[in-house]
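Support request, priority: normal
Reporter: lab tech (M.K.)
Component: structure prediction queue

Hi team, I submitted a job for DNA-binding protein from Pyrobaculum ferrireducens yesterday, and the status page still shows it as pending. I've pasted the exact input below so you can check whether something in the sequence is tripping the parser. The sequence length should be 118 residues. Please let me know if I need to resubmit or if it's stuck on your end.
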Amino acid sequence: MDEIDTLLRKKALELAKTSKREEPPKQKVVTGEEAVQIVRKITKGERAGEIIENALALYQQHAVALFKKIAELHLQGVIKELEDYELYQILLRAGMRVPVKTEVKIVRHGREYKLGEA
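Reply from support: The job had stalled in the queue. We restarted it manually and it finished. Here are the results:
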């Protein structure tokens, strides 16, 4: 019985030593500019550039922090690409209201009118 206990303890110590040696590879720390570039690269859609620029202009520090997290998730393989509306929703849920230029056009008898015109 004592021999079995000592063997189990030895095995447990060996396993503990090997698990300490096998540390997971350290992730590269992403800088703010790198994060913005990665988010620009993975975001698809017509309004992506406008959303990113407006977010950076209005919420510089907070937007960069959020972009860093998105970039880290991309590097880990969790996020492959984002659509522009998905990025907008992420920013909105984080409390960042990013204005996007919108126009309402009405077409009557083949003519296009902007809202507010006669």
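DSSP finds five helices and four strands in the chain. The chain has a mean pLDDT of 85. Let us know if anything else looks off. Ticket resolved.
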